Amino acid sequence: MLATLKGLVTTLAWAFRKPVTAQYPKQHLPIQPRYMGFPALLWDDTAGEPFCTGCMVCVRECPTQCMKAEMKDNPLQQEGKSHRRKIIERFEINWNRCILCGICVEVCNFDAIEMSHVHELGGYARAGSRVTLQELLKYGREFQERSGWKPSNPEKNVAGVALAKEKEKRQPAAAASRSEPASSNPSPGKES
Amino acid sequence: MTTEKQQETVELLLNMGPQHPATHGVFRMVLWIDGERVVDVEPHIGYLHRGSEKLCEGESYAQIVTLFDRLDYIANFNNELVVCRAAEKLMGVEVPERAQYIRVILCELNRIASHLLFYGTYGLDAGAMTPVLYAFRERERIQNLFEAVSGARMMHNFFRIGGVNEDVPPDFGQRVRRIMGELRRGMEECDRLLSFNEIFLSRTRGIGAIDAETAIDYGLTGPNLRACGVPYDVRKDDPYEVYDRLEFDVPVAEHGDCWDRYWLRVQEMYQSLHIVEQCLEQMPEGPVMAQLRRIARPPKGEVFVHCENPRGDLGVYLVSDGGPKPYRVKVRPPSFCSLMPLKHLMRGCYVADCVVILGSIDIVLGEVDR
Amino acid sequence: MIGREVALAAAGLVALFVGLSVVVLSLVWLERKFLGRLQGRIGPMRVGPFGLLQPVADAVKLILKEDVVPAWADKGLFWIAPILMFVPSFMVWVTIPFSRDLVIRNLDMGLFYFIAVSVVSVVGLVMAGWSSASKYAILGGLRSAAQLVSYEIPVIMAVLGVVMLAGSMNLLTVVDKQASVPYILVQPLGLAVFLIAGVAEVGRTPFDIYPAESEIVGGPFVEYSGAHWAIFFLAEYINTFVVALLVTLLFLGGWQWPHLPGVWAPVVVLVKTYLVVMVIFWFRATFPRLRIDQLMAFGWQVLIPLSFVNIVLTGIQLYYRWPSWSLSLMSLGIILAMAYWQYRTQTAPAQALARSYSQRAYSQRRGA
Fold first, then answer.
1. For the segment A154-172, what is each residue's pLDDT rounded down to a tens digit?
2. Residues of A in contact with B160 (CB under 8 A)
3. pTM for the complete prediction?
4. Could C287 and A4 be called an inter-chain contact, meaning their C-beta atoms sit closer than 8 Å?
5. Which residues of A touch C343 (CB under 8 A)?
6. Domain boundaries in chain C?
């Protein structure tokens, strides 16, 4: 009976305390900066093009094969505005298959993909979960603006920085983007 | 019903599950009952079978971690640790100390989260509604911390072969210390609510008892085995990571009944807090990832690694043919072994006890069925 | 003259039905809200201010839902069972007073009528269990029969104690006799027995054995859906309210409240009743469920003897004309003795065991 009374007091005490419930759609709990939402593609403002070169590393490494990518020759590179020789032409992520593991971000050598904070995707139909390049870039730019994302390897990946560096060295712009994925390079930091 | 020549009584065959609120997922028990007494029980598993072991053979080592996240989906970090350690052992990698401490902290917090979930659902099994909500409230603090560290609340994919994905955020220590105080208070509250409640005692004391020898015969491990009085804990008997530098007790009970298993888990939560405290003090600065090639290619060979999961001794037997994908991965799941003595435990008990017994051995179907 | 009587009775019935619906809706809301607060939640919030319209939305949903009848069910019984459960819980209201005048029919044998009628609901439960052609439902129906029949006895015995004190089975008289001292002070043991047995009678936690959700997933109600389930639901909440109301009338002094004019009588009764209902909800938030054999053992081995002791004590006090505080002292003594006995037999061994386990914890590494 003693423990019973103790239990009764324990529950009654909560009647006078503040409830812990957060009223979800009205009140959003803060998202942690490292939160892994659905992957999105990032936008290189200095060149006005995506970071992604369509190198297919993420497509190969994805445990659920949720991505498709296609590359093309980069027109901006010919104009001298970018150091990327190849650029993404088509990209598709099936968000229904994505398991939010973050492996694609880890393997990407071009700072091109990032786990955005997009996570509220409830809907009434399955259609629309195959996200195209434009939408991915849109989500990516939102993420960039909101989180103040910074590339982990700007010298190699940001067109403006890379071109300036190349100019310094008086070398043709194309050389930088030829560097193959460095295998000894530990995983690029996801955080800014 | 037509009138028969003579009356005949037969046992009632009762299908409990796979859709049943108390089977903790999709587990099916076929009960033969005589009134309220259980005459015999036939467990059926496999409703959640995803072929994880086979899938592992087609995935690279980095991808396997995501599969292991989904085995025991309540103790994700503990599962990741096992597979990472297996590959590390095969490759002979020395994991940086800081990474080891981070792993231990996260694993122990995950143990608390898992036991809190057990506490909540066990209360629910016994018919109490509140424990589950109190337990989830406390568990939420841990999940939030996990989100801050790994970016995900459950399927973290944070441990890597050779370390962890990235260093913990700078305010990690502070945050852990803060939630530890809150957790301790919350756990004490939970303790007050349920542990010695007379109804709960009468529901669980002496129910589903199993003695030490039978338990060993059936291959029980973890809290279920320690409840029978066998002091066996992988963290003590085959220390991994930095457990040999930490000071902690392993609670051991005696009777092996439902209440003992429950009590043991509650005590383990306090011990886990103790471990986390020590880890925070001892944690050195330094790298969190060993220098490795980008794609792990363990040499040809085989290895068995086991760790103390919240549910018991999770083992991984890994065979490598030298390629980027394992040749064979075999998992020794503690939940599966905990289900083994089900017949032994349930014969002769009441229907209501079945639920309590099944709850007390704390299975996770993701791990049973793999 | 007769026409007027009939019209009055009809009006009373309509008022009762409307009133009961309001009561049930308020109870549903109160339960969800109060349970939520006890559990650190906030309960329903979205429908109406403070979620006040949530039970209405629930009711609409239940009525609009498809009423599924299992193919193998005994259809006739299946349809009658909810009615059989609902009618008694409706009928008891005939004699329950809210004030000296606010009662449909004041019966001299009011308490007897109440007990006799409320027992009928067990038939509905068993019928529902049998006719559903579901094993869980059958188990639940049989459990409900065992439970309700055995807990009827302590209810009657506890009521008898009050009847002895009041010298009447008329609820008006019982309440009037409590003008100076409510019977809760005189007969705490009787109240304890009545409340526990009453909670068991309506099948609420910790005695929700027959609908046990985690074991037999709703017991007799498992196959019901839509409006029929709603009737069960309605009956359950009305029964809970009736038990609380009887506690109010029998032990808490009904509409008696010092220095309050008679106009306030129904309000006083309602406030007291809702407080008792909240205690029942509070039990639900705190306790696990008993097992069926433990429930029966508790009923037959503890509650029934206790209720007999209560009657004997009351008889002794009445016979020797001891002051009434002697009865309260004796009652309290017995409650404390029971508590101590339980502590010695149950809690203390468990605590000792827990302590010994803590000492057994092993900290040194084996073989090192």
1. 777 777 777 777 777 765 5
2. 187
3. 0.87
4. yes
5. 1-2
6. 1-64, 69-351
